[in-house]
Amino acid sequence: MFEISVEAQFSAAHYLRAYKGKCENMHGHNWKVQVTCTSSELNTQGMVMDFSGLKKSLNKILMQLDHKVLNDVAYFKKANPTSENIAKFIYDKLNYKLLKVSVWETDTSCAAYYE
């Protein structure tokens, strides 16, 4: 198997519903997102896919989240805007054969979604 990964970042505010603690208050993060695609075969250029195409698609999705209050984004009106749900949101929006999407809300805390 082959895999490639790209990373991007976005900044946004959120607050966690049904949570007792400081994260129930509105606060912000500079999230880092890593998207990993997989394939058993390479294309005619010898790649899983072009890094720039994957990064462009990822950035288009992140524009929907960047500098927003995530709780106000339609998807997160039902799903609590946790790092786990942000990873699933991105995974579901990308139309590629994904291995996983990882989302860091701090340098040391990461959540991932994969199927």
Report on the structure:
A hairpin with a 2-residue loop joins β3 and β4 (109-113). The mean pLDDT is 97. The two termini are 16 Å apart. It contains three helices and four strands, in the order ββαααββ. The chain has a four-stranded antiparallel beta sheet with strand order 1-2-3-4, covered by helices on one side. The protein has a single domain (2-113), classed as 6-pyruvoyl tetrahydropterin synthase/QueD (Tetrahydropterin Synthase, Chain A, 2-Layer Sandwich), CATH 3.30.479. The protein is of the alpha+beta class and 115 residues long. The longest helix has 12 residues, at 51-62. The chain has helices spanning 51-62, 75-78, 83-93, and strands at residues 2-14, 27-39, 98-106, 109-113.
Helix share bin? 10-25%
Radius of gyration (Å):
15 Å
Order of helices and strands: EEHHHEE
The number of strands is: 4
Query: Can you tell me the overall shape?
Result: elongated
Tally the structural domains: 1
Profile the largest sheet: 4 strands, antiparallel
